[in-house]
Protein 1
Amino acid sequence: AASDQVMDLTGKLEMAGPLSMQQEIAFSDEAFGYTVGPTWESPTLRAITAYRDVAEDFSTVSGAAGFQGERGVLLQADWRPIETWTFFFRQDVFKSQLYPNPAEPDALNSDMQFAADWAPQPQTQFTGTAGRHRAMGQLFPTDDLRASVALRQSFEVYPWLRNWVHKWTGIGRYDRVESRYRSRSRRGADAT
């Protein structure tokens, strides 16, 4: 159910160099949740560590909140050593308090993901991902592996069509943009 009143307080404490501490505390009716953790941001690396504790009955004005009933730690890193390569890692370990597994009430859940992107040209990108979602502490335990490989290539299908549309309609050309709105009373005043 949605809450009638929700208050949220976020903050960021800049520390030495690229290190900062971020926190968020939120209250809804009589429940609360919070996240806190350090972040390292440099031109080639962004690493986040966040501890969260969100009450089982915490909700937002639109309904259930993300991470509702969870207590856990998130580790996440994006690394771009050179312009054409990007690596991503994410590990989330948490305990479900909302819908725990009655057969294993102390079991933890984990979600791990690795990804690598290679963009040899601006229009071409190869992506590989692998991950494991292990939810043994949930009401319906699951353990699954995921992997994917993708190739993305962007190109113009009909450049002549785009040029024709721009030429005859002015769409996409800012030098031909003009306002066509006038109120009725103004038009009537112009006519007299």
Protein 2
Amino acid sequence: EQKVFVEELPSISLSANRDTVCLNDTIQLSASVSQGQIRSYSWSVGESDEPTISTLAKDSMYVVSAQSRYGLCPTQYDTVSIKIDRPIDILVYAEQERICKTQEEGTILRVDRLGNEIGRFTWSDQSTADTLHVTPSQTTSYSVEATSLYDKCPRVEKSTSVEVREPLSVQLFVDIDDICQNGEDSVTLSAK
């Protein structure tokens, strides 16, 4: 009588401790076994025989492979996907950095995304557009906070100022009261 050993085909499942992270944040990947026994694991992010590994988030997909305890079954694989958020930067500026106090149309403040995917903008007045129309009556600073696409990377806050200048007051003084239309005379104008 001959005995045949039959190894049970393992079943593995890979998971991550977070589904969305900022680029280069640490994530923990864990492989769990629902049936069979595992001899060793191999990870797409580095070597470890452990069912759990920590790594810096650089890719959106991770793979684990597992060998059955006796190596008789085919290698088993599983994958997990995560979303990678990217750090951002912005530039905020006023279309006109200086305006006259009597300028009723004010100026427009704009945010340049600098090619970044932005989640949300919040201006100091709580508006959320990427432009803001302002009509300040005095020199004023405005700030805007921006979040990364998934709000997992550090927020960025930038500000700009609009300088409000008083209108010029000009007075002309003439040194002569009357002049003949056909006459020749010199007139001196002075301004203060």
Protein 3
Amino acid sequence: LTEDEKKNKITELYEKIDNVYLDEHSKTLLKKIVDYSKKYNEGIVKNYIPFNMRIYCDNDKTLTSILDILVDAFNFFGYMKNCKYVFNSFYNIDNQNSLSDIYSNNGLIVIKNINGLINQDSNVQEKILNTLENKIYESNNNTITIIVDKNKDKINEAFSNNSSLKEKIFDFELTTITPEPQDVYRELLDK
């Protein structure tokens, strides 16, 4: 990649980030993640960081925009090989085997519907969380796990009995915002 190609891609990705309905802290964090993938490509930084994260979001279009930015950056800068994202739901995860199937894919593993975990029996919850933790550690630089729910408290509740997941693994957080009515109106007019 030439310096101009990298510079143009960063500019393009930053513009996309600026147009996503994220709070300012989250936009800054997402730009830092994109920038880190560029520095990793250039050899400026050598440590691979698995950007496992929580995204507080109730809008699928916004979520898809965030994921598209991450996939574009990770593929362009070679941070992950053949990166793509796969959606799943905690309602579909009822045992450790379900998680093993999910982690057979590389890329971004996006798990939604935290209530599907919270509503499980506490023993099943604990097994699923322990397996999730193990799968994340085993995946090294093949996958990034993203937990999505609109409610931060729900995710904290689900992780309350697993401090490693709560405090060490999912330490990157992005928070979406609701668009202002004039933004929605302007978006409609632009189409």
